[in-house]
Amino acid sequence: MDRLLILEDGSVYKGTALGSNANFRMGEIVFNTSMTGYQEILTDNSYCGQIIMMTYPLMGNYGINGDDMESIIPAAFGFVVRDYCEYPSNWRSQQTLDDYLKRVNVPGIYGIDTRAITKKIRTQGTMKATLADPDVDVEAVIRELNENDYLHNQVKRVSTTRIYPIPNRGHKVVLMDFGAKLGIVRELTKRNCDLIVVPYDTPAYEIMNFHPDGVMLSNGPGDPEDVSIAIQTIRQLVGKVPMFGICLGHQLIGLACGAKTYKLKFGHRGGNHPVVNLATGRVEITSQNHSFAIDIDSLKDTDLEMTHQALNDHSCEGVRHKKYPIFSVQYHPEASAGPQDSQYLFDEFITMMEKEKEEDHA
């Protein structure tokens, strides 16, 4: 079955249908440069409102399994690939990529020139797009893409709506869920953290009522300025409890402490982004997925200092508070999928909580 990919600049690409035959939605088309990990990428809630395009040509070759999900139901609006493998070969495979996308109602397309589209996005910047049936009124779709604003408040779509525990015997950590990847939960659980997962709009007093040893601010989709209620909450938590932010959580810490954020031309998405640790000079290869970044110049009037920097475009990749036990990174130390160079940051979070408890008892 034929399918179209239509971009807001009027470009139309004809390919073959993949996944769901319905649920076509307008979203941002973004590219990811990872060579593997399509299952983890598809189920990353930070892609809510976006159509994912993979730059590596072959997808589906190792199928889908039940263990590597980053969320139960994907929030992505579509999936675009060059070549699709109908017959996966992997001992862990439980179903094909096509069958999985049909089951979770996500449409896709393959057989199109993803390299040309990637070059277009790198030149013109991220743009709106949609998948459609071949008999659609293309001019009407292009008009709608240009007239409609980008999706806002994606965090509300993917955050938990209730508080729930993931019990353990270690440090008590409140995880603010802005669309948290399960990889973050795995890394904290691996370190015996006693987790309490709360919705994005949970007030500061309710978080502190749990008497946490630390607060984890998760990744999530969209513009950080849209999550004003969380910015206010984080501002009230500063100085009261150790905090560690990842991706959107990093941006929210920046905004809560007086820094500014801006939208990147085409974002950072992939498992091969080099970042330098400014304290050690060590370069880490990182997994990334974000559209926004903290403005480095805006840090000078805050109590934050930059700790990590991207080597590709020199954008801010990490900050630390000068007075309180608070730090954050723009990339994904839990990887899933991607290199594991940065998992030491979870250990630093544990050490920070332990140090704070020692000082409180001194």
UniProtKB/TrEMBL annotation:
This is Carbamoyl phosphate synthase small chain. It catalyses: hydrogencarbonate + L-glutamine + 2 ATP + H2O = carbamoyl phosphate + L-glutamate + 2 ADP + phosphate + 2 H(+); L-glutamine + H2O = L-glutamate + NH4(+). One of its GO terms (molecular function) is carbamoyl-phosphate synthase (glutamine-hydrolyzing) activity. Pathway: Pyrimidine metabolism; UMP biosynthesis via de novo pathway; (S)-dihydroorotate from bicarbonate: step 1/3; Amino-acid biosynthesis; L-arginine biosynthesis; carbamoyl phosphate from bicarbonate: step 1/1. Its EC number is 6.3.5.5. Gene3D superfamilies: 3.40.50.880, Carbamoyl-phosphate synthase small subunit, N-terminal domain. It holds the Pfam family CPSase_sm_chain. NCBIfam families: CPSaseIIsmall, PRK12838.1. Composed of two chains; the small (or glutamine) chain promotes the hydrolysis of glutamine to ammonia, which is used by the large (or ammonia) chain to synthesize carbamoyl phosphate. Tetramer of heterodimers (alpha,beta)4. L-glutamine binds at S46, G220, G222, L248, Q251, N289, F292. GO terms for biological process: 'de novo' pyrimidine nucleobase biosynthetic process; 'de novo' UMP biosynthetic process; glutamine metabolic process; L-arginine biosynthetic process. InterPro entries: Anth_synth/Amidotransfase, CarbamoylP_synth_ssu, CarbamoylP_synth_ssu_N, CarbP_synth_ssu_N_sf, Class_I_gatase-like, CPSase_GATase1, GATASE.
